[in-house]
Automatic annotation (TrEMBL):
Name of the top EC class for this enzyme: transferase
Keyword line: Coiled coil, Kinase, Membrane, Transferase, Transmembrane, Transmembrane helix, Two-component regulatory system
Official protein name in the record: histidine kinase
EC identifiers of the protein: 2.7.13.3
Domain of life of the native organism: Bacteria
Any Pfam family the entry gives: HATPase_c
TM segment ranges: 7-32, 190-212
Chain segments annotated as coiled-coil in the UniProt record: 215-259
Catalytic activity: ATP + protein L-histidine = ADP + protein N-phospho-L-histidine
GO molecular function term, any single one: kinase activity
Residues covered by the Histidine kinase/HSP90-like ATPase domain: 366-456
Length: 458
């Protein structure tokens, strides 16, 4: 069954249909040949019976009145049946009475004997011409015909009718030498088999052509469907992977937001809050509270308080500047890169090497924000951890992808173990928009690279 199932529909049809049509051909062929055989036998028997009846009937007396044939009739029958074409064609002849008595026979030993009427004889007395080809009965009255060497015989039972009433009064049984009949029957049978086989082969070829064409169509559609299913499976797998990445990114984003909030809180607590607290404590200084304190000391204390508060304000503004983005969504990407580098140089007082092409494809707003944050965080790390040594920013387009790099000549770090909050947040941000984030660090310095797919804007 497994081998059968692996076959194509066309081959399955060809095998099953071929066997089915072969069986149908055999059944139809046997039925057709049987009908042809019976038809040829009936036609031949009817022709011979008519001929014999036309020759014999005038010699017979009134069979309703004569129970026996006199010698004159018998001699006339002998002479007629032994002469001419009739004598050559008839191997044996009998004339039966209804009760099974043989009134006349070429074998004179059978005349007057009574036999049990067989089925053919009964059918003939019923008015039917009965014929059998080369199939002699085992009756005692047929032993003479079995011993003859005349060749294949056509046994015919012909009813003898009364001319004026049409009633069957006797039956003539005779055996015709059927040499020509056999060849005619063989040719007819072969022709019928050839016609049936040809019609079956033509039907099989026609149906096979239709089925093979349909099978090819089904196979083509099946291959297309399998390709679609494979594509859908790949998409489902990709969607599942993306869903897992989104869930993972969502969880990490939540954690990173909490860490950002803690860092902002720590920056506010350790910086401006401490300075404001110090200023508040100095507001309770005895120098300020004592009316008799020297004016110079009081002014110096007030100046120190102002200085502390100014420093707290600067730190608060620095924190806010790191959180608030400039208007970069409508700016060109080249201008965004120049702005990020300029802000870093102004804030830190260090120099940054900037390498830009003449033109870059314009990404979307999310990509622009990500590029700005990437350069900002990368240069901050280069300043804090790389001592601001050999800071550089590069950008380029290759094969529809935008590459942005931030480099420094610092001591480097282990990216696997030491990726801090800023770099982790950048990685999540870049990967969430379909980009790639790469960190390469060693004793010779650190190299941060992002890759974004940018479509050509019309």
């Amino acid at each position: 069954m497994q081998r059968w199932g692996r076959l194509s529909l066309a081959l399955q049809f060809l095998i099953a249909g071929g066997i089915g049509l072969l069986v149908v051909m055999l059944v139809v062929g046997l039925w057709v040949t049987s009908q042809i055989r019976q038809g040829v036998m009936r036609n031949s028997a009817a022709t011979t019976a008519l001929y014999v009846d036309s020759v014999i009937a005038p010699l017979l007396p009134d069979m309703r009145k004569s129970r026996e044939l006199d010698d004159t009739v018998k001699r006339a029958l002998d002479e007629t049946l032994d002469q001419g074409a009739l004598g050559k064609r008839l191997a044996s002849f009998k004339l039966w009475r209804r009760d099974g008595t043989i009134l006349y026979a070429k074998d004179t030993t059978l005349i007057g004997k009574v036999f049990e009427p067989n089925a053919n004889l009964v059918a003939a007395f019923s008015g039917n011409v009965v014929a059998e080809y080369n199939d002699l009965d085992d009756d005692a009255e047929s032993q003479h015909e079995k011993k003859t060497e005349a060749g294949p015989l056509l046994e015919i039972y012909n009813p003898v009718r009364e001319p004026w009433s049409g009633e069957v009064v006797a039956v003539s049984e005779f055996y015709e030498v059927a040499d020509g009949f056999e060849s005619t029957l063989t040719v007819a049978l072969w022709q019928s088999w050839l016609v049936v086989a040809g019609a079956t082969a033509a039907a099989l070829a026609l149906l096979s052509g239709i089925v093979f064409r349909g099978s090819r169509t089904i196979q083509t559609q099946r291959e297309a469907l399998e390709a679609k299913i494979a594509e859908l499976r790949a998409l489902l797998s990709q969607n599942s992977s993306l869903r897992e990445r989104v869930q993972h990114a969502s969880r990490r984003a939540t954690a990173l937001n909490e860490r950002y909030l803690r860092r902002i809180g720590a920056d506010l607590h350790d910086g401006p809050a401490q300075l404001v607290a110090l200023a508040a404590l100095r507001m309770d200084s005895p120098i300020l509270l004592d009316p008799g304190a020297p004016t110079a000391l009081r002014e110096a204390e007030i100046a120190d308080i102002h200085k502390t508060l100014d420093e707290a304000i600067r730190e608060i503004r620095g924190i806010c500047n790191g959180l608030v983005l400039p208007q970069i969504e409508t700016a060109a990407v080249l201008d965004i890169l120049r702005l990020a580098v300029a802000e870093h140089q102004r804030r830190t007082g260090t120099s940054v090497s900037l390498t830009l092409p003449k033109r870059l494809r314009e990404p979307g707003p999310s990509e622009k924000i990500s590029i700005y944050r990437f350069v900002q965080e990368g240069l901050n790390n280069a300043y804090r951890h790389g001592k601001g040594r050999d800071q550089a920013v590069k950008a380029a387009m290759k094969g529809g992808k935008l590459f942005v790099e931030v480099l420094d000549g610092g001591p480097g770090f282990d990216p696997v173990r030491s990726e801090g909050l800023g770099l982790a947040g950048l990685r999540e941000r870049i990967e969430s928009i379909g980009g790639q984030f790469e960190t390469v660090s060693g004793p010779q310095g650190t190299r941060l690279v992002i890759t974004l797919s940018i479509e050509e804007q019309s």
